[in-house]
Write a structure and sequence with these properties.
Largest sheet: 2 strands, antiparallel
Number of strands: 2
Low-confidence stretches: none
Number of helices: 3
Number of domains: 1
Shape: elongated
Distance between the termini: 76 Å
Strand content: 5-15%
Mean pLDDT: 85
Order of helices and strands: EHHEH
Strand order of the largest sheet: 1-2
Structural class: mainly alpha
Length: 100
C-alpha cells in the first residue's frame, strides 16, 4: 500500500522529508517519488508519496509521538537585503578607504 502525506501550510519539501523519515536527507527520495525538484514549492493540501523513505527512526518516532509537523516556510519568499555592507569595518585600504 502506498504511503501518502498531505502538505500543511508553510511546509516545504525538506519539512515533509523530516516529518516522514526523521531526516532531511530523504528529500531526494521524496522528490524522485513525486517527480518534482527538491526546491519545488509545494502547495498546502496536496498529497505526496512517501514510500519507504530512509531516515532516522528515533527522530521519526519522536515527531510521530509528539504530533509534530515542521513548517519552516518557503525560504524563496523571504525578503533579502542585497545592499553592500558599509562602514569602517568593511572598508579595504586603497579600495574603499583612501590613505592620505
Amino acid at each position: 500500500m502506498e504511503q501518502k502525506t498531505t502538505v500543511r501550510n508553510e511546509q516545504n519539501l525538506l519539512d515533509i522529508a523530516l516529518q516522514e523519515s526523521g531526516s532531511i536527507l530523504s528529500v531526494f527520495e521524496l522528490a524522485i517519488q513525486n517527480n518534482i525538484s527538491i526546491t519545488a514549492t509545494v502547495t498546502p493540501g496536496i498529497s505526496l508519496l512517501c514510500n519507504n523513505l530512509s531516515g532516522a527512526k528515533e527522530i521519526l518516532r519522536y515527531y510521530k509521538e509528539n504530533n509534530l509537523f515542521p513548517a519552516t516556510g518557503n525560504a524563496v519568499d523571504l525578503p533579502v537585503d542585497l545592499r553592500p555592507l558599509e562602514g569602517i569595518d568593511y572598508w579595504a585600504v586603497e579600495v574603499d578607504f583612501k590613505v592620505q
